[in-house]
Amino acid sequence: MSLAAPPPRARTLSPVLPVVAVVALLALPVSPGGEGGAGPADVLSALVVLFCAVRLLRQRRRPLSRTAAVILGLPVAALALAAMGSTSPGAGVTGLGRYLQVFVLVPAAVLLLIRDRADFRLLAWSFVGLAGWQGAVGAHQYVTGTGASYQGEQIRAVGTFGSQDVMGMATVVSFGLVCAVGLALGRSPLRQRIVATACALALLLPLALSFSRGAWIATAVTCSVQLALAGIRRALRVGAAVAAAGVVLVGGFGVGTAMLQERVGSITQVTDAPDQSVTDRYTMWAASVGMWRDQPLTGVGLKGFPEHRDAHASLALSAGSDTDGAGAGFRRQPLLSPHNMYLLVLGEQGLAGLLALAGGWLALLVCAVRRLVLTRRLRAPGLDCALVASGLLVWQLTDFLYADIGGPSTVLTAVSLGLAAWWALAGGGGREEELTR
Question: In whole angstroms, what is the distance from residue 181 CA to residue 223 CA?
Fold first, then answer.
């Protein structure tokens, strides 16, 4: 009889692979002139939720902890109330489905499908890979003059999302950069940290070429927070690397063009001489506040902003924004949202909706940062996961000051919330015995 030990069991296929497929589908080009309906990634995300539900039924286990169920389920009642308040039943049902997809169902499915830190890192690297692809396409658009129109020239990097979603590539690249920075600052093997650092530095170029002020601000804030949470020494080293990369970008690649410098300078010109896009944004912000004042508790209903906009907006609001280039012809897009998630929720869902949604996001952030601090104190494994999760939350909550949900890249917001929820809520949400296992 042989006394040899049995061979170790092979690791089964990760259940997060369908989520990776959702991320990968965002690399496909968006059809020019699309109306912003459900795309392939949205359809697959619904199948991922179904797959997760079937998996739970087969395993016969409790799906969520009490804390996770409360935080993720908190918005459901407020969303249902806002849907009933919609002037159009169809719009209410559509809006309810979209909000449940992005903020409840997909994040919960991602949380439940991640088994361990290896699955978490797999998803984080898929974000970096998607960002690298979209960034490469965007940089090519800038160099060849085939991007979206910006000040009369087709140089704006938009990746495969086209001119109808100029924020899509900026969002994807920002998520990838935040993930790369978190992976680089962790305690993972040196080779992984070197690759992550190289990816983060490479993604700075397409982020700059996106001409997205909101993405710049959110990324700068997030990376600063990640560096501070990782430690002063790492912050100094990475800061020096970023400064060196900036010198290379400006001096070697000529990224510091007059248009880019003007775009950077326009960030501070919000009161003295704002451009029309800033004026439109402030006007729509005021309109959202006006809607909230009319219906302070429940708002005007889901998908109600376009219908009530003109009744609350001043004459300073333009008819729409012009889009052109990147494979699509000239088109005037109507302004259907205030480009501020908090004010959109406040206007359409009132205080009840804002407290439910924003309260859940804030609870996730508190749990994630608390667990990160405990991980650093115990020198437990998973610091890279902690920095990625906290960074994704900080980026999203900052970007929501300048943007809201909409477009094909929105499903990536849902996946990022699921990643953050796993770190913040899985395994007891921060107990020492869970971190040291």
Answer: 7
What pLDDT is stored for residue 2 in this prediction? Answer: 44
- Whole-number average pLDDT of the chain: 84
Q: Please say whether the beta carbons of 165 and 407 come within 8 A.
A: yes
Distance of alpha carbon 136 from alpha carbon 145, whole angstroms = 14
Average pLDDT over residues 109-113: 95
Distance CA 264, CA 125 (A): 29
Question: Is pLDDT above 90 for 398?
Answer: yes
3-state secondary structure of 88: coil
Task: Look at residue 335 and tell me whether its pLDDT is greater than 80.
Answer: no
Would you say 84 and 92 are in contact if contact means Cβ atoms under 8 Å apart?
A: yes
pLDDT band at 106 (very low <50, low <70, confident <90, very high): very high
Whether 157 is covered by a domain: the verdict is: yes
pTM of the model: 0.89
- The answer to whether residue 395 is domain-embedded is yes
HSE (side-chain half, CA atoms, 13 Å) at 225: 23
Count of structural domains, the chain:
1
Averaged pLDDT for residues 315-344: 72
Give the C-alpha separation, 50 to 178, whole Å. 29
- CA-CA distance, 158 to 140, in Å (whole number)? 10
DSSP secondary structure string for all residues of 125-138: HHHHHHHHHHHHHH
Residue 394 lies in a domain: yes
**pLDDT confidence of residue 188:** 85
Angle, CA 305 vertex, CA 299 and CA 311 arms, to 5°: 95
Q: Which residue has the tokens 């902890």?
A: 65
DSSP 3-state of 312: helix
Distance CA 112, CA 337 (A): 32
Measured between alpha carbons, how far is 46 from 340 in angstroms, rounded to an integer? 26
Lowest mean pLDDT among 13-27, 120-134, 310-324: 310-324
Judge whether 409 lies within some domain: yes
Side chain identity at 81, as an amino acid letter?
Answer: L
Q: How far apart are CA 275 and CA 85, in angstroms?
A: 35
Q: Which domain holds residue 358?
A: 42-49+64-271+335-435
